[in-house]
Model the fold of this input.
Amino acid sequence: GENVEQHPSTLSVQEGDSAVIKCTYSDSASNYFPWYKQELGKRPQLIIDIRSNVGEKKDQRIAVTLNKTAKHFSLHITETQPEDSAVYFCAAGGGNKLVFGAGTILRVKS
Amino acid sequence: DTEVTQTPKHLVMGMTNKKSLKCEQHMGHRAMYWYKQKAKKPPELMFVYSYEKLSINESVPSRFSPECPNSSLLNLHLHALQPEDSALYLCASSHLLAGAAGELFFGEGSRLTVL
Done:
Protein backbone atom coordinates (compact mmCIF):
# COMPACT_ATOMS: atom_id res chain seq x y z
CA GLY A 1 0.00 0.00 0.00
CA GLU A 2 0.89 3.67 -0.11
CA ASN A 3 3.36 5.11 2.39
CA VAL A 4 3.87 8.86 2.75
CA GLU A 5 6.80 10.43 4.56
CA GLN A 6 6.75 14.10 5.53
CA HIS A 7 9.58 16.39 6.66
CA PRO A 8 10.28 18.33 8.74
CA SER A 9 8.10 17.44 11.71
CA THR A 10 8.36 20.99 13.06
CA LEU A 11 9.32 24.21 11.33
CA SER A 12 9.78 27.65 12.86
CA VAL A 13 10.12 30.70 10.61
CA GLN A 14 10.08 34.44 11.07
CA GLU A 15 7.08 36.31 9.78
CA GLY A 16 7.66 37.20 6.14
CA ASP A 17 10.05 34.32 5.48
CA SER A 18 9.23 31.34 3.27
CA ALA A 19 8.39 27.84 4.50
CA VAL A 20 8.91 24.58 2.61
CA ILE A 21 7.51 21.19 3.58
CA LYS A 22 8.46 18.05 1.68
CA CYS A 23 6.75 14.69 1.19
CA THR A 24 7.68 11.48 -0.53
CA TYR A 25 5.32 8.70 -1.54
CA SER A 26 5.84 5.07 -2.46
CA ASP A 27 3.02 4.03 -4.79
CA SER A 28 3.59 5.10 -8.39
CA ALA A 29 -0.15 4.60 -9.02
CA SER A 30 -1.02 7.54 -6.74
CA ASN A 31 -2.40 10.40 -8.81
CA TYR A 32 -3.73 12.95 -6.33
CA PHE A 33 -1.66 14.98 -3.84
CA PRO A 34 -3.52 17.38 -1.56
CA TRP A 35 -2.26 19.49 1.32
CA TYR A 36 -4.42 20.07 4.39
CA LYS A 37 -4.07 22.66 7.14
CA GLN A 38 -5.36 21.83 10.60
CA GLU A 39 -5.51 24.50 13.27
CA LEU A 40 -5.69 23.46 16.91
CA GLY A 41 -9.07 21.92 17.70
CA LYS A 42 -10.33 22.42 14.15
CA ARG A 43 -11.03 20.19 11.18
CA PRO A 44 -8.43 19.62 8.43
CA GLN A 45 -9.07 21.95 5.48
CA LEU A 46 -7.70 21.67 1.96
CA ILE A 47 -5.34 24.49 1.04
CA ILE A 48 -4.07 23.27 -2.32
CA ASP A 49 -3.92 20.08 -4.35
CA ILE A 50 -2.20 18.79 -7.46
CA ARG A 51 -2.82 15.88 -9.81
CA SER A 52 -0.18 13.72 -11.40
CA ASN A 53 -0.54 15.31 -14.85
CA VAL A 54 0.61 18.69 -13.50
CA GLY A 55 4.07 19.65 -12.23
CA GLU A 56 3.30 22.83 -10.33
CA LYS A 57 0.32 24.76 -9.06
CA LYS A 58 0.13 28.13 -7.34
CA ASP A 59 -2.56 29.94 -5.39
CA GLN A 60 -1.49 33.35 -4.10
CA ARG A 61 1.20 32.72 -1.41
CA ILE A 62 0.94 28.93 -1.64
CA ALA A 63 2.45 26.66 -4.27
CA VAL A 64 2.86 22.92 -4.68
CA THR A 65 5.39 21.14 -6.89
CA LEU A 66 5.31 17.49 -7.91
CA ASN A 67 8.17 15.34 -9.20
CA LYS A 68 6.61 12.04 -10.32
CA THR A 69 9.92 10.48 -11.25
CA ALA A 70 11.35 11.00 -7.79
CA LYS A 71 7.95 10.47 -6.13
CA HIS A 72 8.09 13.62 -4.09
CA PHE A 73 6.03 16.77 -3.75
CA SER A 74 6.50 19.95 -1.78
CA LEU A 75 4.48 22.78 -0.30
CA HIS A 76 5.88 26.30 -0.50
CA ILE A 77 4.44 29.16 1.53
CA THR A 78 5.85 32.62 0.85
CA GLU A 79 5.56 35.76 2.99
CA THR A 80 4.44 33.73 5.99
CA GLN A 81 2.03 35.31 8.47
CA PRO A 82 1.19 34.38 12.08
CA GLU A 83 -2.15 32.95 10.91
CA ASP A 84 -0.22 30.39 8.84
CA SER A 85 0.75 28.70 12.13
CA ALA A 86 -0.91 25.27 12.14
CA VAL A 87 -0.25 21.61 11.40
CA TYR A 88 0.11 20.84 7.71
CA PHE A 89 -0.54 17.35 6.32
CA CYS A 90 0.39 16.13 2.88
CA ALA A 91 -1.48 13.18 1.41
CA ALA A 92 -1.20 10.89 -1.58
CA GLY A 93 -3.62 8.50 -3.18
CA GLY A 94 -5.92 7.50 -5.96
CA GLY A 95 -9.49 6.33 -6.23
CA ASN A 96 -11.07 7.05 -2.86
CA LYS A 97 -8.11 6.26 -0.69
CA LEU A 98 -5.82 8.96 0.66
CA VAL A 99 -2.86 8.27 2.94
CA PHE A 100 -1.66 11.17 5.04
CA GLY A 101 1.86 12.11 6.03
CA ALA A 102 2.72 12.47 9.71
CA GLY A 103 2.28 16.25 9.66
CA THR A 104 4.44 19.35 10.08
CA ILE A 105 3.89 21.83 12.90
CA LEU A 106 4.56 25.26 11.39
CA ARG A 107 5.19 28.14 13.79
CA VAL A 108 5.44 31.65 12.37
CA LYS A 109 7.11 34.02 14.82
CA SER A 110 6.18 37.68 14.69
CA ASP B 1 -24.49 24.21 2.07
CA THR B 2 -20.80 23.24 2.10
CA GLU B 3 -20.75 21.70 5.54
CA VAL B 4 -20.30 18.24 6.90
CA THR B 5 -22.12 18.05 10.23
CA GLN B 6 -21.17 15.56 12.92
CA THR B 7 -22.98 14.72 16.14
CA PRO B 8 -22.28 14.47 18.97
CA LYS B 9 -19.24 16.75 19.30
CA HIS B 10 -18.17 14.95 22.47
CA LEU B 11 -18.98 11.46 23.71
CA VAL B 12 -17.89 9.62 26.84
CA MET B 13 -18.74 5.95 27.03
CA GLY B 14 -17.92 2.89 29.08
CA MET B 15 -16.48 -0.26 27.58
CA THR B 16 -19.85 -2.04 27.72
CA ASN B 17 -21.89 0.77 26.16
CA LYS B 18 -23.37 0.97 22.68
CA LYS B 19 -23.37 4.38 21.04
CA SER B 20 -23.45 5.86 17.55
CA LEU B 21 -21.74 8.74 15.79
CA LYS B 22 -23.67 10.52 13.06
CA CYS B 23 -22.59 12.48 10.00
CA GLU B 24 -24.63 14.40 7.45
CA GLN B 25 -23.82 16.31 4.25
CA HIS B 26 -26.00 17.98 1.64
CA MET B 27 -23.39 18.70 -1.03
CA GLY B 28 -24.46 15.82 -3.25
CA HIS B 29 -21.23 13.94 -2.54
CA ARG B 30 -21.47 10.22 -3.25
CA ALA B 31 -18.35 9.22 -1.29
CA MET B 32 -18.31 9.36 2.51
CA TYR B 33 -15.51 8.45 4.88
CA TRP B 34 -14.70 7.76 8.50
CA TYR B 35 -11.25 8.71 9.73
CA LYS B 36 -9.75 8.29 13.20
CA GLN B 37 -7.29 10.89 14.50
CA LYS B 38 -5.21 10.55 17.64
CA ALA B 39 -3.59 13.60 19.22
CA LYS B 40 -0.65 14.96 17.19
CA LYS B 41 -1.16 12.27 14.51
CA PRO B 42 -2.55 12.34 10.99
CA PRO B 43 -6.06 11.15 10.16
CA GLU B 44 -6.19 7.38 9.58
CA LEU B 45 -8.70 6.00 7.13
CA MET B 46 -11.23 3.55 8.59
CA PHE B 47 -14.07 3.15 6.07
CA VAL B 48 -15.14 4.47 2.68
CA TYR B 49 -18.64 4.37 1.23
CA SER B 50 -19.15 4.92 -2.50
CA TYR B 51 -22.71 5.26 -3.73
CA GLU B 52 -23.92 4.10 -0.31
CA LYS B 53 -21.96 0.84 -0.53
CA LEU B 54 -18.95 0.00 1.63
CA SER B 55 -15.96 0.08 -0.71
CA ILE B 56 -13.02 0.20 1.71
CA ASN B 57 -12.62 -1.26 5.20
CA GLU B 58 -9.09 -0.72 6.48
CA SER B 59 -9.16 -3.86 8.63
CA VAL B 60 -11.04 -2.02 11.36
CA PRO B 61 -12.09 -4.14 14.40
CA SER B 62 -15.71 -5.29 14.33
CA ARG B 63 -16.50 -3.22 17.44
CA PHE B 64 -16.78 -0.37 14.90
CA SER B 65 -19.71 -0.86 12.54
CA PRO B 66 -20.39 1.68 9.78
CA GLU B 67 -23.74 2.28 8.14
CA CYS B 68 -24.80 4.49 5.23
CA PRO B 69 -28.63 4.73 5.27
CA ASN B 70 -28.76 7.12 2.31
CA SER B 71 -26.55 9.38 0.22
CA SER B 72 -26.55 12.15 2.86
CA LEU B 73 -26.06 10.19 6.07
CA LEU B 74 -23.24 8.14 7.53
CA ASN B 75 -23.25 6.47 10.94
CA LEU B 76 -20.59 4.75 12.98
CA HIS B 77 -21.95 2.31 15.56
CA LEU B 78 -19.72 1.68 18.56
CA HIS B 79 -19.88 -1.35 20.84
CA ALA B 80 -17.54 -2.80 23.45
CA LEU B 81 -14.81 -0.25 22.75
CA GLN B 82 -11.44 -0.16 24.46
CA PRO B 83 -9.77 2.85 26.11
CA GLU B 84 -7.25 2.95 23.24
CA ASP B 85 -10.16 3.73 20.89
CA SER B 86 -10.39 7.18 22.46
CA ALA B 87 -9.74 9.64 19.63
CA LEU B 88 -11.27 12.26 17.36
CA TYR B 89 -13.49 10.59 14.76
CA LEU B 90 -13.71 12.61 11.58
CA CYS B 91 -16.33 12.17 8.92
CA ALA B 92 -15.58 13.43 5.41
CA SER B 93 -17.26 13.49 2.03
CA SER B 94 -16.16 14.06 -1.54
CA HIS B 95 -17.33 13.90 -5.12
CA LEU B 96 -16.57 10.74 -7.06
CA LEU B 97 -14.59 11.82 -10.13
CA ALA B 98 -14.47 8.89 -12.55
CA GLY B 99 -12.46 6.86 -10.06
CA ALA B 100 -10.14 9.69 -9.09
CA ALA B 101 -9.94 11.17 -5.61
CA GLY B 102 -11.44 14.58 -4.98
CA GLU B 103 -11.25 17.16 -2.24
CA LEU B 104 -12.23 15.79 1.14
CA PHE B 105 -14.60 17.99 3.13
CA PHE B 106 -14.20 17.15 6.80
CA GLY B 107 -16.66 17.59 9.63
CA GLU B 108 -15.54 19.07 12.96
CA GLY B 109 -15.27 15.60 14.42
CA SER B 110 -16.67 13.70 17.37
CA ARG B 111 -14.25 13.49 20.28
CA LEU B 112 -14.69 10.07 21.88
CA THR B 113 -13.46 9.10 25.33
CA VAL B 114 -13.74 5.45 26.38
CA LEU B 115 -13.50 4.86 30.12
Remarks:
- The first strand of chain A starts at residue 4 and ends at 7.
- The interface with chain B takes residues 31-32, 34, 36, 42-46, 49, 51, 89, 93-103 of chain A (CB under 8 Å).
- Residues 44 and 71 of chain A are 24 Å apart (CA to CA).
